[in-house]
Amino acid sequence: MERLTKQHFRLKYKNLRSSLSNEQFNYDCKQINKHINTIAKGNVHLFLPIKEKNEVDIWPTIKQLQNSNEVLGTSIFDSITDHVNHVEILKTANFITGDYNIPVPTKFNPISLNVFDTIIIPLLCYDKKGNRIGYGKGIYDRILEKCNVNCKKIGVSLFAAEQQIPSNEHDIKLDFCITPNKVIKF
Question: What is the mean pLDDT of the chain?
Answer without folding.
Answer: 94
